[in-house]
């Protein structure tokens, strides 16, 4: 039996110790010449060509794995010249060598004053963590690059705007046992742990994620599993966190097996951003283990077409080939994906990776998120720009997770009851009204 007590973290290096320097890792050698430049990113329909992204086939029909992108190869050559493929493609190595400090990040990015000040001030906010793989996708010189905005902090994170809250979805009120949220009658959200390999700056659970608030200890998980077993109305269990896929295979196997033993649980879902930020984690051994626990579904978090790399394609292909239905949950973010062309490119890229666009979330009003939130009108315009102009499969459901615990409300004309100067009044699935702060609309900014 798996011992949770021997390793209560359940994943590699839960503690936030300073990882080894990204320069000269593993061999102690010096980096390649600093004069070697990374290719700049321009806003093209896709950052990667079809030849890079999608697999080739041998004469006998076998799939030849997609190669990594030119951009990632250049990054490795400059900053990790002596790290062999065996280590670079090891997900545990990627986690141990995350970029987490100002000193580490400033070695590979030309930081603007805003980024540098935020990193200096960031002791009390969401931790910083960027895998070497994901760092290879960032533009070295452009702080306005969409992906860079989502993982490198800004001073705006410290601004508390009206309508924002640490727990805007009021999950704590719907938590019958620690780490379990039971909001809808037939499904529960099990928060397995609070660790992510890379931290999104707009994280809904930034109040707990990365702070050691939720640990995957066996006693806590058994208490949550016992609640599910005693509640026969629960037919669907969503495992999230943090990112459940940073658990070791044997502990994922144990947890899935325990949930599968509950007769009234029909499906299990896993929410993860691993295929986008740590695709090396999707190993053949992981997929082999997951196949034992069908019906298993997976919700993937992609926010921009530049995340749809050859490595992400390979990760999604492995999951899809194992019979796991894949859906995407994308957050609408100002200056990142808040235009029809970018969103359309993302949805098309996901479909080509066999990921069904499912939800487009209005950014939750967590503290310090105003610089990420668009107006609601922007989201409606994007949906209007997609519907009828592309495949129906490529049009996600645009939703607001209502502040105060109202649940997910689809954004359709009949759900918008009233528009005030600084908020939108919405009707949820129960007919109740909820108010979402929409200050960007008042000022005319999106």
Keywords:
single chain, 446 residues, alpha/beta, TIM Barrel, 2 domains, nine-stranded mixed β-sheet, three-stranded antiparallel β-sheet, 28% helix, disordered N terminus
The CATH level-2 architecture of the largest domain is identified as: Alpha-Beta Barrel
Structural class: alpha/beta
Instruction: Quote the beta fraction.
Output: 5-15%
What is the top-level CATH class of the largest domain?
Answer: Alpha Beta
Overall mean confidence score, pLDDT = 86
Radius of gyration: 21 Å
Number of beta-strand segments: 14
Largest sheet composition: 9 strands, mixed
CATH topology of the largest domain: TIM Barrel
Low-confidence stretches: 1-47
What coarse outline follows from CA principal-axis ratios? globular
End-to-end gap: 53 Å
Question: Which series of helices and strands comes N to C?
Answer: HEEHHHHHHHEEHEHEHHEHEHEHEEEEEH
The structural domain count equals: 2
User: Looking across the biggest beta sheet, what order are the strands in?
Assistant: 3-4-5-6-7-8-9-10-11
Structure commentary:
The chain contains 16 helices and 14 strands. By secondary structure, it is of the alpha/beta class. It has 2 domains: 105 residues, no CATH class; 233 residues, Aldolase class I (TIM Barrel, Alpha-Beta Barrel), CATH 3.20.20. Helix 10 packs parallel to helix 12. The protein starts with 49 loop residues before the first helix and ends with a helix.
């Amino acid at each position: 039996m798996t011992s949770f007590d021997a390793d209560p973290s359940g994943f590699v290096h839960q503690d936030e110790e300073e990882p080894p320097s990204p320069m000269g890792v593993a061999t102690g050698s010096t980096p390649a010449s600093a004069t070697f430049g990374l290719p700049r990113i321009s806003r093209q329909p896709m950052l990667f060509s079809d030849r890079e992204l999608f697999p080739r086939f041998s004469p006998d029909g076998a799939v030849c794995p997609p190669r990594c992108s030119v951009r990632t190869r250049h990054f490795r050559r400059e900053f990790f010249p002596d790290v062999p493929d065996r280590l670079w493609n090891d997900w545990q190595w990627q986690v141990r060598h995350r970029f987490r400090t100002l000193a580490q990040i400033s070695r590979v990015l030309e930081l603007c004053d805003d980024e540098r000040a935020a990193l200096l001030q960031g002791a009390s906010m969401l931790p910083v963590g960027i895998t070497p793989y994901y760092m290879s996708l960032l533009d070295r010189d452009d702080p306005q690059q969409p992906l860079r905005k989502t993982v490198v902090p800004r001073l705006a994170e410290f601004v508390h705007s009206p309508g924002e809250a640490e727990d805007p979805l009021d999950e704590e009120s719907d938590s019958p046992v620690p780490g379990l949220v039971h909001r809808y009658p037939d499904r529960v959200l099990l928060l397995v742990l609070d660790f992510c390999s890379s931290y999104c700056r707009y994280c809904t659970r930034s109040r707990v994620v990365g702070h050691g608030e939720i640990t995957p200890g066996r006693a806590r998980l058994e208490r949550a599993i016992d609640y599910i077993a005693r509640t026969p109305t629960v037919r669907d269990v969503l495992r999230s966190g943090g990112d459940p896929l940073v658990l070791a295979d044997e502990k994922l196997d144990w947890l899935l097996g325990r949930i599968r033993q509950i007769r009234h649980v029909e499906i299990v879902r896993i929410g993860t951003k691993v295929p986008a930020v740590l695709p090396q984690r999707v190993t053949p051994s992981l997929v082999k283990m997951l196949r034992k626990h069908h019906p298993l579904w997976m919700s993937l978090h992609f926010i921009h077409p530049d995340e749809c790399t050859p490595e992400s394609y390979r990760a999604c292909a492995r999951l899809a080939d194992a019979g796991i239905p894949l859906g995407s949950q994308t957050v609408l973010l100002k200056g990142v994906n808040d235009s029809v062309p970018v969103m359309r490119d993302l949805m098309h890229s996901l479909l080509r990776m066999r990921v069904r666009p499912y939800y487009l979330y209005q950014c939750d009003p967590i503290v310090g998120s105003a610089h990420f939130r668009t107006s609601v009108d922007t989201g409606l315009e994007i949906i209007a720009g997609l519907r009828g102009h592309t495949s129906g499969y490529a049009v996600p459901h645009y939703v607001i997770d209502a502040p105060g615990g109202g649940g997910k409300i689809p954004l359709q004309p009949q759900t918008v009851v009233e528009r005030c100067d600084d908020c939108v009044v919405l009707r949820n699935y129960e007919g109740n009204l909820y108010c979402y702060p929409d200050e960007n609309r008042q000022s005319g900014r999106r």
